[in-house]
């Protein structure tokens, strides 16, 4: 299990201080702001500010896939007793060009839809299921609860919202 003090070094998110009722509200808010950046940013959303940063569009496509991936883990962990989550292969998806045809309208619409789908599934879990445990990924072999995975979806969304805002700053100077 994660240590109680575990927090993100970049954005300060504390996984273990998140309650299940907070996840839908905060994820909805962060997604709305993220979608707004993808749709209405005045900087070019397909441009990488530097080679080591994704574009706003790539961060959006990544976040869309994170919602899909975490929702699948939560469903499988609700059914299987010792579920082991698959890898996302986040860099490989980009490097293979799998996001190359994603247009801003597609990404904005899909990000909104996948966020809603993730939230609806999370809210529909039977009572007590948020305490079920599974192995989050074969990379870390970290044992987590379904609640932790829900918090991780929220974390990814808030964290990458910070990334796309940083891209806006970097591209507008
Ligand atoms: Zn973070």
How would you describe what is shown here?
The chain is mainly alpha-helical and 173 residues long. It has one domain: dinb family like domain (Four Helix Bundle (Hemerythrin (Met), subunit A), Up-down Bundle), CATH 1.20.120.450. It has helices spanning 22-40, 56-79, 90-95, 104-124, 146-171; strands at 133-135, 143-145. A two-stranded antiparallel ribbon has the order 1-2. The protein binds zinc ion. Residues 8, 10-11, 13, 155, 159 line the site of zinc ion (ZN). Zinc ion is lined by residues 8, 10-11, 13, 155, 159.
Sheet of most strands: 2 strands, antiparallel
SSE class: mainly alpha
Low-confidence stretches: none
Assigned CATH superfamily: dinb family like domain
CATH architecture type = Up-down Bundle
Q: If you average the pLDDT, what whole number results?
A: 95
The total number of structural domains is 1
Topology at a glance:
Blueprint: H1 22-40, H2 56-79, H3 90-95, H4 104-124, E1 133-135, E2 143-145, H5 146-171
Antiparallel strand pairs: 1-2
Helix pairs in contact: 1-4, 1-5, 2-4, 2-5
The protein binds zinc ion.
Zinc ion is lined by residues 8, 10-11, 13, 155, 159.
Give a short synopsis of this structure:
With 173 residues, this protein is mainly alpha-helical. The chain is 55% helix and 3% strand. It has helices spanning 22-40, 56-79, 90-95, 104-124, 146-171, and strands at residues 133-135, 143-145.
